[in-house]
Amino acid sequence: MTSRKPLWCVMTPTDIKSQWRESWKSAAMVNAHVVDDPTIWQPGFTLPRQQWSLPNRFHTSRGHYGACRKTWRLTDTDLCPCDETQMMSHIIESCRLTKLNGGLSQLHTWLINYGF
């Protein structure tokens, strides 16, 4: 049976970018505050995949750090070389061996300033 109202006749124009921005703001995401506009390419997006993956792992708090590797049963310990539980936030914000002054926000600023 032929439709009397084809899909393209009942569709209303939608601003996808506005919907995405609103969804981004209302979602409870880790480190979402670092990204102002999720509809544009973030700093570093044009890097080769291997180089883009590392800063992206810090933004999402997902990666091959001690606590995660222990959960995956790839190691017996979740400790950092500094003897604290190793998480992405620990690596960049509080580890005495690897801490980046300014934390995740500084990493994001660094990516912008160096044209990534």
Structural class: mainly alpha
Q: Report the count of strand segments.
A: 0
Helix content: 40-55%
Distance between the termini: 54 Å
Strand percentage: under 5%
* Number of distinct helices: 6
What overall geometry do the principal axes of the alpha carbons give? elongated
Spans of at least 5 consecutive residues whose pLDDT stays below 50 are none
Structure write-up:
It contains six helices and no strands. The protein is elongated and about 70 Å long. 43% of the residues lie in helices and 0% in strands. The chain has a domain at 43-116.
Explain briefly what this protein structure is.
The protein is mainly α.
What is this structure's SSE topology?
Blueprint: H1 7-10, H2 16-26, H3 49-60, H4 66-71, H5 88-93, H6 103-113
List keywords for this structure.
6 helices; 0% strand; mainly alpha; 116 residues; single chain
